[in-house]
Amino acid sequence: MDRAVESRLSYSDKEGHHHTVDLSPTSARVTIGRSPGSDLLLTEDDEVSRLHAVLECVGSHWTILDDGLSRNGTFVNGERLAGRRRLRQGDSIRIGGTKIRYLEFGGALDEATRMGTDMPDVRSLTDTQRAVLTALCRPYKHGAAFANPASNQQIAQELFLSVDAIKTHLRALFAKFGVGDLPQNQKRVSLAERAMRSGIINERDL
């Protein structure tokens, strides 16, 4: 049976305080708005309607719905939402003046199947490769919405290895995770996302 992905909403309020909301498949429905009964309550944002948008778990995936619920609209990756839309890892949601990042930390079964042979088995990684991968993903701890993967220098300092050694391990990981052909500036982010989405690295590791 498909299970919903382990997902989270991450956002900062007007005072700069960071908040996260875990999305549990047992809840299946999360309301967003200014109403006191909202699951994600945005009382300080005057552009948010009392019931602005709804997140619903459909099958094994989270979707967002704004079917005329809000006065000012809901935007996903800069596009105004019309009806329902499936959310994907890293989607940026704007509700009023509040920007929310949607994060996934483990893939649903059909997503894992789609990745297929691009995803290695955790047993195929050496202890050092897994340590490098964990250090690479560490900035994403606690669902940090706008984090960047750790640099080679940061990983080297954490693991007491040389930068050249880290580069060698990363090249091997790029190949194992099927991101070796991506542009250089996309490889690290894609590697971190695939590692967390597949469940090879989870938040407990970070």
TrEMBL record:
UniProt keyword list: Phosphoprotein
Stretch forming the signal peptide: none
Ranges that cross the membrane: none
Alphabetized SUPFAM superfamilies for the sequence: C-terminal effector domain of the bipartite response regulators, SMAD/FHA domain
One BP term from GO: regulation of DNA-templated transcription
Annotated stretches, region: Disordered: 1-29
Keyword Transit peptide set for record: no
Pfam families per the UniProt record, alphabetical: FHA, GerE
Entry keyword Phosphoprotein: yes
GO terms for MF: DNA binding
Biased composition regions of type Basic and acidic residues, renumbered to the chain: 1-21
FHA domain span: 30-81
Descriptive protein name: FHA domain-containing protein
Annotated organism of origin: Rhodococcus wratislaviensis
